[in-house]
Design goal:
Helix content: over 70%
Largest sheet: none
Distance between the termini: 127 Å
Structural class: mainly alpha
Order of helices and strands: HHHHHH
Number of strands: 0
Shape: rod-shaped
Radius of gyration: 48 Å
Length: 285
């Protein structure tokens, strides 16, 4: 797995923030479709309502599974979200196709998915989903080009004009809803970024306090070492004086001992000479 730069709790928090808005958002789109269908006589394929309802159901199921797996490893949580995005994008692709495919604005919702996945998934996974969105959009273009699946467009080419009030209102509503979603998740991203900035500021303040405390401790230790060195130097000087005094005393005693030795040796020599003279006198007599 690609390097994960955020912790498990942060991933769960971001995932829950995204999940909390999905249910009301999809419900809002269903409600708008019913409003346009009933009051503006805009045609929506029954399949479109079915797949939007299916997206609503899968959102609920994913939320339930996510809550069950809250104690799982971070890799399992990310893998679950990635798998859910793969399935959900297939559902979204069918909805985009039923909205008009490459000839209307439905494809802009791919950008929404590409945006939100960078908030949760590691970089490699998020880019994989962007490539997957590109593949699905190309698939829509191919299906439409070869007319592999027939469907009735919400607005025909003749109806897609500024003078068609239903087309204008529906387009404005869809774009406004998309921009609102981008704004909401932009706010979520802003809050996440703001929280990270506050955490960094707290960490910086703690580091500053720790550095100041460390400087105080280092200063105190430096003074303690300097005072200890000075005391040691004083002791060395004092001891040197004592050693010098002892050396002088020892030299004095040694000098006295040498003098005594000379006197003792001289006396012994005199005694020996005296004994020789006494012996000689005894012999002569």
């Amino acid at each position: 797995m690609d390097e994960i730069l955020i912790g498990k709790e942060e991933i769960i928090k971001r995932r829950d923030q995204l999940n909390d808005i999905r249910f009301p958002t999809i419900s809002c789109f269903l409600f708008l479709m019913l409003i346009f269908k009933i009051f503006f006589n805009v045609y929506f394929s029954p399949l479109l309502l079915i797949f939007l309802s299916l997206m609503l159901i899968t959102t609920i199921i994913y939320s339930l599974i996510s809550n069950i797996m809250i104690a799982s490893s971070i890799s399992a949580i990310i893998s679950l979200h990635f798998a859910y995005m793969i399935i959900d994008l297939i559902n979204l692709t069918i909805i985009i196709y039923l909205l008009g495919g490459v000839v209307w604005i439905g494809f802009i919702f791919y950008a929404f998915y590409a945006y939100i996945n960078f908030i949760i998934l590691p970089r490699k996974y998020a880019f994989s989903l962007i490539g997957y969105c590109g593949f699905l959009y190309v698939l829509i273009a191919v299906i439409q080009y070869f007319s592999l699946f027939s469907y009735k467009e919400i607005f025909s080419l003749e109806e897609r004009v500024p003078q068609n009030i239903n087309f204008v209102i529906t387009t404005v509503a869809a774009v406004t809803a998309f921009l609102w979603l981008i704004g909401y998740y932009g706010d979520v991203f802003y809050k996440i970024l703001g929280e990270k900035i506050r955490e960094l500021q707290k960490t910086k303040a703690l580091l500053e306090d720790e550095r100041a405390s460390l400087e105080i401790r280092v200063g105190a230790k430096t003074r303690e070492l300097r005072e200890g060195r000075e005391r040691l130097e004083d002791k060395i000087i004092e001891r040197t004086k004592e050693v010098e005094k002892e050396r002088k005393e020892l030299a004095k005693k040694l000098s006295e001992l040498e003098k005594f030795h000379k006197v003792a040796v001289g006396r012994e020599l005199k005694m020996r000479d005296l004994k020789k003279e006494i012996t000689k006198l005894k012999t002569d007599s």
